[in-house]
Amino acid sequence: MVGYTAVVEALSLEGNMSLGALAYTMGSWSARTLEKHGTEEQKAFYLPMIATGEAAFSLCVSEEKTGSNVAAMQTSVRLGEDNRGYLIKGKKSWVINAPNTDYFIVIAKHQGLGEDVKYSDPERQFHQDKRKTGSMSAFIVPKKAPGVTVGQLKPFIGLRGLQVSELILDDVPIPLDYLIGKTGDGFGIAMEAVSMERHVMGAVLLPLLKKLIGL
């Protein structure tokens, strides 16, 4: 954690917060999620491409109407009619680097699940009551998949180097093996990513603060 935070701080030198923010988008939000929760096949395929810059990832959690209340998200996932894949439908907001990314990690809520999901981790079990309407899972969604549309860019006062937009998912079909972790792990995966962001965001801001006070 300390080494990674130092790298993000170095990339944010001279007030270039956009570069630092993009680094944690690819690092703590994407690569770390795949490294920790992905299958061996997913890690072998995607992580080398992230490391070499051949593929970019973006995390999709927030939604316009639910804000920071992840448990209230409306993006849904269901099995296809042949039970050989998933269909994801919804809209995600504030997706960093969406126009330039190749793959999205999408958190979506299963229809009709949630009450029967049990966790060995007490903290995850604590959050069970907050999402009785359905459990969540994390999925890899290729940008080129049918039904994926990147919306208009969102104007920012700062962080002009970031391109942030909506992601529209219209019954996007994905294979079963694009699931990250287990069914119902999505809420925990999202919270882990947010927790990492809280650590490294300070490193993004630190060079600018030093510059402002003349250090």
Walk me through what this model shows.
With 215 residues, the chain is an alpha+beta fold. 35% of the residues lie in helices and 26% in strands. Helix 1 runs antiparallel to helix 2 (17-37), helix 1 (2-11) packs across helix 5 and helix 2 (17-37) packs antiparallel against helix 5. It is globular. The two termini are 25 Å apart. The model is unreliable at 113-117 and 125-134 (pLDDT under 50).
Q: Would you list the SSEs in sequence order as H and E?
A: HHHEEEEHEEEEH
User: What's the shape?
Assistant: globular
- Bin the helical content: 25-40%
Backbone structural class: alpha+beta
Write the layout of secondary structure elements.
Layout: H1 2-11, H2 17-37, H3 40-52, E1 57-60, E2 76-79, E3 85-96, E4 103-110, H4 122-126, E5 136-142, E6 148-153, E7 164-175, E8 179-180, H5 186-212
Parallel strand pairs: 1-4, 2-4
Antiparallel strand pairs: 2-3, 3-7, 4-5, 5-8, 6-7
Helix pairs in contact: 1-2, 1-5, 2-3, 2-5
What attributes characterize this protein structure?
5 helices, eight-stranded mixed β-sheet, alpha+beta, 215 residues
Provide a compact summary of the structure.
This protein is of the alpha+beta class and 215 residues long. It is built from five helices and eight strands. Helix 1 packs antiparallel against helix 2, helix 2 runs antiparallel to helix 3 and helix 2 runs antiparallel to helix 5.
